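Re: weekly structure request thread

Next one in the queue (263 aa):
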Amino acid sequence: MAEASVMNHQIHNQSIVDQFTKQAIPFSQKSQLSSEEILDLMVDACGVTSQDVVLDVACGPGLTACAFAKAAARVTGIDITPAMIERAKAQQAELGLTNLTWRVGDILSLPFPDESFSLVVTRYSFHHLLDPGAALAEMMRALKPGGRVMLMDAAPESSKVDAYNRMEKLRDPSHVRAMPAEELLRMAREAGLVNVKTAFCKVEFELEKTLAASFPNPGDEEKLRQIFSDDLMTDSLGMGAHRRGGEIHFHYPTIIIVGAKPE
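Done, posted below.
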């Protein structure tokens, strides 16, 4: 990595740590993004077995890793934010799971030997990355031949992705760029994944609860309220904003991509 790129990566990583240290507690609480239905959908999409050795990259508070640990032989979760790893350990203890280990580390330099895992997963992380393609390549390096990768992330409509990203950058200053489904799929195939399968879901949220669990910069909450109020008529975000019981609700368009590393 060139010196300027290294500096940008380090600065951006610090913005992620700052943002998700604040979000550690709210992020560890069950929400629509981590409902049993969504977690089961991920596990089923991956075809997890009791033989699988799993790596959860950018594991956050461990909700995904713990879900996979119920079906897999062993799961390792890694995240750049120490506060998230502490929440993950607490989640593990609460569930009484013994087949989990945790590491603090960077998605672009995973501290594991080549071909260490039969399944490498990541959930809602790629939109935070300056170079998601490099992160996927690093995930592939750590994957055994014949193993699987699962990538789950927001996937806005291509015609609405710019408006979506402007909104998300206001809500979460560590946001970089969500990609449309076709771009994510192209990246997966260019990384060498084969037998690629997809599943789509719409995860619904209520605006005020979302803002209460977010940490936008001062003054940006009102901008976000105005954006969603305007979007009730235009749907320029592609998030289906609508009123229910006086509150604004919307959904995150989400894709799950599962593919295999060639034997």
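DSSP finds nine helices and eight strands in the chain. The chain has one domain: 3-203+253-260.
Next request, please.
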